[in-house]
Each structure stands twice: as C-alpha cells, then as structure tokens.
C-alpha cells in the first residue's frame, strides 16, 4: 500500500475522494453514536489542512440498491460539517446497485473529476465493492490513517504476537469462525471459546446441550480440534433459560438457572456461568496480548450479560496489549464504559476477522495493485 503522504501528499489543492466507513446507528433519524465519524477525522483533517478539496463517500445501512429516505446521508452530512467544515459528502453509495455489484460504470461516476483516492474504510474493506476496489485502478491511491492503523495492529497480533497471547472468540455460530479459529490457533497460546458457538464444542465432548444453539454438521470438526490438543478453553458452567422463557423479555417468564456442562431438554444456554467467567478472567489477566471478538452470551438481555461483563472487565484490566475486534464486542465495552481502557478497538468486526484469518483484504489488495502516483 502507498503511504498517505507519498501517494496524495503532493496533491495540494487537488481533489481527493475518501472512502470512509460512516455506517453509524440512527435512531429516529438522528445519529445515535458518531464514533465512526470521529474515527475518520484524522485523515479528513490531514487532507483539508494541506489544501485538498475532499469528497467523502460511504454506505449507510442496507437500502437494497435504491434511494431510501431512512438511509439518506443528511444527518451525517450535518455532523461532518460541524467536525470538519468544507468536506463534501456523497449520497449513500448503496442507493446505486452498482456499488455492491462493483459495476465499472458506477466506479466512473465516483472517480470523475477526482485527482486521488484514499481508502479509510477498514470496516468495508473486506467487500469487493465499487468504492473499495474500483478507484485505485484509475487514481493515485493510499490507505488513510485509520485503515493503516487497523492493519498494523491486527497484522501485528497475527505476525508478531506478544506472549502469552490469549484469543477470545464468542458469537453465535462456530461455522462462521472456523477459519479464524484455525488461524488463531497457529499463533495463540490460549483460545477462549464462549457465546453460542461453545455448545457445538461441548456437544463434541459428549455433553447434552438442551435447546441451546447447535450446529450438528460442525460437531465432527470441533471434535477434531479438541482431539488435536489445541489450547482451547471451554465453559465449565452455563447460565440457561428454562422452557417458556423469551430471550430479551424477562417479563415473559421462564426460570434462569446455573448448570454445569450438561443442560436438560428445553433449556437454552445463553451465557457462560460465574465459574467459567472467573476462570477465563484468570487466563486473560496473565496475558501480554489479548484479542477479543464476540460476546460470551446474549448480553443485550441483562439476565445473560454477566459473563460478557466479567470478560470485558478482565480485558480492560489486563496489563498486556488489548485489542477488541469490533462488532458486538466493541458495543459491549462501550456499553460498560470500558473503551478508554482498551488499547485498540477495531471499527470492523467482519473485516478484522477476515484480516486475521486471511492476512489480506480485497481493499488492501486493490491499494497495492492500483495505479501508482505520477
């Protein structure tokens, strides 16, 4: 990838297209959290201060390739004008089906009248979309400050780990994370498994998982990983919801109980238990490097938030270098007011996992192979 200074630093008072990831949450037409907008500011301000005419572009939500007032960029445009006056913002890229289809004709509308391109959208760089992979074929291109930092930190975890290196994976499906599990097991000293994905591993050990999330077609693969002697840490106790209960609705009834590694029929495991949370914390607190992606349970429901809270507090208290891989994990540390105690919080959940697994992303490849500066 070209350095920002080398690629576009000499384009003073020229026109620069910047792909940002401004996919912020909206509530009643207002920005609920402007973290991603503020994350784009170092690159945007750097360019503006050097006299560039900056046009930012981003997607917002999933408008299905057609204009949708619910996903219009006006609230973002107003906030951006407050934070970095003078930067123009294009309408939602996904209002045009050419964005997700990587249509060359749409790429031409993006690069028309531009002298350089900067990709600062790490959270979208695992997508081979028009605004990510198209402009580098036509314009001098570079990684923005945010993108470069994300790549340095995450590839540093993968290629130059500080030991002991502890990985923590949660989330729903083990099938979504088998690739990154394999990649992390090549470099981690310990890999903690929580969330819904743990039940397929527990089933592979012969445990009864009741009505918990289970992927039967992945049981054999999980058994192979366990039999390989991989340094996996699984829950020893589970917080479960009884028959008749509704996730996210305590008023609907249903008992909540602690079990060991076996659950009765009809009981859903929705969080790691307190014993597991304490054991996981001990492993985390001894680490010199921690990478966490995925909650330990359904933390949006207060009955099943304790495991994620305890793990988050352990990550925040770890004296080593700590990385949270975006997505729900980032939401959890923000909700718990722990963000300022984490060394690096990624802006891209899916992108961070793919980079850890593959060591590359379509957006990074496009920058490396794109047009060189004149």
CATH class of the largest domain: Alpha Beta
Q: How would you describe the oligomerization state of the chains in this entry?
A: single chain
Number of domains: 2
Distance between the termini: 15 Å
Could you give me the name of the CATH homologous superfamily of the largest domain?
Answer: Phosphoglycerate kinase, N-terminal domain
* Bulk shape: globular
Structural class: alpha/beta
Proportion of helical residues: 25-40%
Poorly predicted residue ranges? none
Determine Rg (CA atoms, Å).
Answer: 22 Å
**Per CATH, which architecture of the largest domain?**
3-Layer(aba) Sandwich
Q: Report strand order across the widest sheet.
A: 10-9-8-14-15-16
Mean pLDDT: 93
The counted number of beta strands is 16
Strand content: 15-25%
Largest sheet: 6 strands, parallel
Number of helix segments?
Answer: 16
CATH topology of the largest domain: Rossmann fold
């Amino acid at each position: 990838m070209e350095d920002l200074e080398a690629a576009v630093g000499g384009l003073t008072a020229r026109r620069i297209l910047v792909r940002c990831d401004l996919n912020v949450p909206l509530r009643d037409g207002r920005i609920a959290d402007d973290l991603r907008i503020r994350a784009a500011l170092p690159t945007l301000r750097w360019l503006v201060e050097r006299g560039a005419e900056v046009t930012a572009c981003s997607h917002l939500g999933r408008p299905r390739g057609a204009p949708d007032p619910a996903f219009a960029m006006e609230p973002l445009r107003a906030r951006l004008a407050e934070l970095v006056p003078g930067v123009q913002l294009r309408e939602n890229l996904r209002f045009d089906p050419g964005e997700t289809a990587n249509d060359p004709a749409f790429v031409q509308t993006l690069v028309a009248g531009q002298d350089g391109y900067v990709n600062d959208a790490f959270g979208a760089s695992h997508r081979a979309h028009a605004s990510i992979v198209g402009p580098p074929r036509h314009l001098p291109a570079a990684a923005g400050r945010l993108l470069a930092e994300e790549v340095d930190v995450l590839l540093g975890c993968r290629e130059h780990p500080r030991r002991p290196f502890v990985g923590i994976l949660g989330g729903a499906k083990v099938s979504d994370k088998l690739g990154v599990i394999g990649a992390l097991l090549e470099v981690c000293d310990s890999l903690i498994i929580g969330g819904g994905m743990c039940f397929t591993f527990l089933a592979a050990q012969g445990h009864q998982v009741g009505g918990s999330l289970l992927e039967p077609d992945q049981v054999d693969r999980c058994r192979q990983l366990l039999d390989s002697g991989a340094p996996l840490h699984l829950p020893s106790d589970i917080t479960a919801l009884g028959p008749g209960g509704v996730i996210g609705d305590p008023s609907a009834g249903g008992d909540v109980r602690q079990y060991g590694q076996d659950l009765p029929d009809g009981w859903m495991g929705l969080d790691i238990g307190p014993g597991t949370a304490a054991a996981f914390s001990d492993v985390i607190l001894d680490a010199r490097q921690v990478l966490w992606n995925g909650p330990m349970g359904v933390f949006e429901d207060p009955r099943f938030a304790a495991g994620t809270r305890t793990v988050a507090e352990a990550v925040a208290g770890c004296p080593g270098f700590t990385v949270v891989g975006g997505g729900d994990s980032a939401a959890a540390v923000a909700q718990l007011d722990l963000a300022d105690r984490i060394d690096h919080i990624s802006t891209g959940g899916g992108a961070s996992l793919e980079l850890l697994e593959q060591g590359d992303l379509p957006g990074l490849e496009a920058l490396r192979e794109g047009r060189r500066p004149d």
